Amino acid sequence: MRIKKKTLSPFKILAIGFATVIFTGATLLSLPISSVSGQFTSFLDTIFTATSAVCVTGLVVLDTGLYWSTFGQLVIMILIEIGGLGFMAMSTIFAILVGKKITLKERLVMQEAYNTFNLQGVISHVRYMLLFTFSVQGLAAIILMTQFIPMYGVGKGIYFGIFHAISAFCNAGFDLLGNFTSVTVINTNVVVLMTLAMLINIGGLGYMVWREIFSGITHKKMKNALSLHSKVVITISLILVFGGTLVFLIFEWNNPATMQGMSFPHKLVNSFFSSTTPRTAGFNSISNSEMSPAGKLVTMAFMFIGGSPGSTAGGVKTSTLGILIFTLISVLRGRDETEVFGRHLSQSTVYRAVAVFLMGIVIVVLGVTVLSINEVGATFEQILYEVLSAFGTVGLTQGITPGLTAVSKITLSTIMYLGRVGPLTVMLALAGQKQKVNIKYPEGKLLIG
Amino acid sequence: MRIKKKTLSPFKILAIGFATVIFTGATLLSLPISSVSGQFTSFLDTIFTATSAVCVTGLVVLDTGLYWSTFGQLVIMILIEIGGLGFMAMSTIFAILVGKKITLKERLVMQEAYNTFNLQGVISHVRYMLLFTFSVQGLAAIILMTQFIPMYGVGKGIYFGIFHAISAFCNAGFDLLGNFTSVTVINTNVVVLMTLAMLINIGGLGYMVWREIFSGITHKKMKNALSLHSKVVITISLILVFGGTLVFLIFEWNNPATMQGMSFPHKLVNSFFSSTTPRTAGFNSISNSEMSPAGKLVTMAFMFIGGSPGSTAGGVKTSTLGILIFTLISVLRGRDETEVFGRHLSQSTVYRAVAVFLMGIVIVVLGVTVLSINEVGATFEQILYEVLSAFGTVGLTQGITPGLTAVSKITLSTIMYLGRVGPLTVMLALAGQKQKVNIKYPEGKLLIG
Ligand SMILES: [K+]
Ligand SMILES: [K+]
Predict the structure, then answer these.
(1) Which has the least CB within 10 A, A253, B33, B124, B181?
(2) Domain span including residue A212
(3) Which residues cross the membrane (chains A, B) (predicted)?
(4) Could you give the number of structural domains in chain B?
């Protein structure tokens, strides 16, 4: 994977590319045309907003529905789409449009962006991905319009349909409903909640997995069509979503602050929604700060885990969790190798998963420490929640985002960026291309737990 | 490490042995002679107390200083000493006293209990360990008496000196000062705090490490005397203790609820004490529930990590953390193997560390979920704190222990037991001895974060 040329590494191009889009977006948002009041907006707030949009996080310091003008909202929507699909897909379209051939270097960058295994068919990959994305988003937008047009009239209804379809598919969590309340005001609208939840799940699973599922359906050989990666990602995702739904159903059933007053179908839909959204969409249909302790724990754990690689989601990823869980199971079964669905994983794959997981913990701990100094009056829970939300690019909050200090805003922007680009990618970019060392030290022994 | 005989596995003997001591202790504590009031105590409360003592946790539902009679307190002290040194040392002394030879099976059990690498010299190991333990405890008891006698008179002062020396060395965290306030009432007594902190650090590092340090001092070749295990454990412990001290010094400096009113030396000593005690002693010199968010995070993280293997401490252990951190560093440096001080670790060592770490997380998540149902009115933070405290056999609390429901008491007792005996040990005991399977599946690929 390491290139010996003196050019920028794929890691660096990816990292710099995201940063460029963020700065451009922040500049546009700071202009008077972007705000309802027609005034300049502080660059600190626009950097935070643009980072939150490009990293599809959804944490906002300024109310998306009330503060920003339609122009500002469109900028945010485009930043979300760029972030969600990746700027690489965009540059590929550009390359296709102007008829240029894609260079090997460009292909390598794309490979990193989508975490695919080989260079073959990256272009057709991107083309199909865009077709898939726009189809799903378009269909969902129309369904959402059937609900929003009766509520807000034709113009606003169409606009809201498109905006929220994009925001949900890209797992961005931005909403236009105002007053920082996300979708709690419409939490009895089953069509809206289920459409958003399905968009989030589809977007969060990753295009590659869907391509394999389609291929399986087309050729009627699902077993052969699914790669090991897809099997693991689907298994972990299903366990998390349905396990989470069950936890919310049990623990919020009698919680007067959340679901007590609801009918059973509404309880079910809101539980499913609450289980879906922390990985890593960021909409909320019930109050986050008034959930039961178990509900909060599941939400926080899900924010840390996030979605699947090559998707629109952040966090340490379902595959990382899967690798660690399968390693645990293999150790308990007395196996030497990590076994997964009749395959074993290489040592380097497992070690990489350990590294990603631990980097995630380190980032969260550092984030909580920094916010702890700067957010006087905020509780431990509020701060931990905010940092996990940023790292998983989730966007849920217990309400402290709008009042954050400058240092905290910068810290959370950095964490969102690390969570989106991938902590390991950033570290490897900073480290540069080390030469492979072939020294192997003698084995040492260590006692464990 | 697996024995093919039809006898009980070392894992099972160890697990059953601990359980037997707990039940015996609980029975004694439930008798009228054990309480000040001269009444029978409910078995639920005595099981909790005995488990807390044998697992050297220090969570208490009944005030150790006020509820229990001197007889009851002595039972608790003996349970702590048995738990701290391990019932294996006791059974070895018994074997030595009656002149019996120790069988291979007994040696294997001891090996498991102390996590040593080979069978050689286990007996002399235990003998030296007891000498070391009683020397340190005796010296510390005398130092503590110089402080306690002026406060409480000769009889009570001597008794308090012995009790707290044992409790601190064994990382038990039980205290006799009353009203569930631990050592906060004497948090300006530098001698007491430093003596307790040193006892905790000495006990928490593990006897094996100290034996190597002594050997290094005696032969003046520290570099050769220290095993890889000792180097890792000492390094991680030093980083945690001094890193933690710094965090508490910075974050509690101006906290009016904890250290604001103290002089600089007192701030320093209390920071050092606060950094030492969550791993896994359980005394507290400043208020836990009023700490800064950063202080709470460090405390909770330290409770989960715990002390070193083969020591009186619980948690996932410093060596487990060390292995994961060195794996992260090795991945970032582009190495294929986990490298530690010029050695590489075997794949199975790293996988075992992953398993222990993940089992810890699973236990904590399940614990929080159970307590969340049963502790109506308790906050997420209080519950998480309580469960982490039980798992790390720490004993710190945000105040909910005395009012716990029956289900929560049983759950926490189980978690203390798992934390003390080691989650992996328990799982392997339950799983029994699986035969080694030599099938190796073909390699599969997975995408990570
Ligand atoms: K999001
Ligand atoms: K303890």
Answers:
(1) B124
(2) 10-431
(3) 12-31, 43-62, 74-98, 126-145, 157-178, 190-210, 231-251, 350-371, 410-431
(4) 1
